Amino acid sequence: MKPFFGSDPDVFLKQVWQTRPAFFKGGLGNPALPFDRSGFIKLSSDKRLVSRLVLADTHFIVDYGPFSPRRFRSLPETNWTLLISETDRIYREIHQLKSHLPFIPGWRMDDIMISYGVPGGTVGPHIDEYDVFLIQIGGEKRWRITDSRITSPVYRRNEELRILEQFKPDREFICKTGDVLYLPPGIGHEGTTLEPGFTVSIGFRAPSLKEGLPVLADLLLASGSDWRFGDKGRQPDRDPHLLSETDQARMKNLMAEFSGSDVFRHWAGRMVTESKRGFVYKKPRLKSTDLLKVKNLTWAPGVRRVLIEGQPLLLYIEGTHFPLPGHPLLKQLIGEDSHSEAIVDAVKRDKDLTTLVKTCIRNGWLIPSSS
Known about the structure:
Elements: H1 9-15, E1 22-24, H2 37-43, E2 51-56, E3 60-64, E4 80-84, H3 92-95, E5 109-117, E6 132-137, E7 140-149, E8 171-175, E9 180-183, E10 187-195, E11 197-204, H4 209-223, H5 245-259, H6 262-273, E12 296-299, E13 305-308, E14 314-317, E15 320-322, H7 330-335, E16 338-339, H8 341-348, H9 351-362, E17 366-369
Antiparallel strand pairs: 1-9, 2-3, 2-4, 4-5, 5-11, 6-9, 6-11, 7-8, 7-10, 12-16, 12-17, 13-14, 14-15
C-alpha cells in the first residue's frame, strides 16, 4: 500500500488511528487551493454552503452566512476566522484531497471544511467527536493539543461555541504549508492563526444512535416490519417485579434480529450517504437527459454513494435507495469517478442502468459530456 503523508498506512491504522494524535511535517508537500482570500470570501455567499464568521474577543461572536463581500470590508486585520463546510462538493480539486487516504472507505469520510484566518483568529479550545486531518495551506497556524481524550468536557457558559472551560495542552505545533495534523475524537485542541492562511479539515462521519433514531423510525414505519419480544421455553419466576438477566438477554436477541435485517442495512445506507446540511447540486442546463449523444460520465465532486454488501446488494446515493441488486456493471459505475465511452455504451444497452443514470444526471450527481 502506498505511503500517505510520508507514513505507512498499516502502521498508522494499528498504532495511531483513533488512538493518539500525529503530526506529519511537510506531509502534503506544497498543496494549493483553487481560490485566494477574495475567492474564498466570494464562496461564502453560496446559499448551498454553511458559512460561519467567528470573531475572537472577550467572548466569541459567531455570524452565519451566506455573506456579502461587503461584510468583510469593515473587519479588522486581526482576530477573525471564516469557515465554510462542504467545499469538496463545489471543487473537484478539494474533493481529490481525500485520495491521500485511500485505505479508509469513502463512506467513512464526511465533508471537507476550509477556514481562512487572520492573525489572532481562532475558534477557541474545543473537542470534536470525530477524527480529523488538519492541513495547512499558506500562512502559519499554532496548534495546542492534549495528548489524551477529554472524556467529561465542561464548557464555558454564555458562549455560542462549545468552548472548553479548562484547557491544559500537552503539546504545541507551528503548522506551515503542507504540514498535516491528525487528531482522533475527543482530543482537546486550539488553533490560532499567526500569519494569514487556510486550514483544510478532512472530517470523518461517525454515525451515532442518537442522530440515527429518527431515520430508523421512518424506515420501520415504511417497511411494515416489526420485531417483538418472545419467551418460548420460559421457566417459572418467583419474583414478579424482577427483570431477569435471562429476559434482558431475550431483549438483546431482539436487537440482534433487527441488526441482521434488511431494514438495518437500509438504515446504514441512509446514515452514511445523506447530506447532513441538505446540500443540493446544481441541476444541468440540458433540456433532456437523453444518453444518445453522451460519451463520458463523471460523478460530481463529493457525491455520497455506497454499495452495501449482503443479499440483495443495496445501492444508496445521497440518502436515496436505488433497487439494482447484483448488476455486473454496478460496482464499476459507483466505484469509479469517471467513465469512458465503452462503459457509457454498456449503460445505454441496459434499461435499469439507463434509468439510474438519467436520475443521477437530473439531480446533478452525474455530469454528462458529449466530447
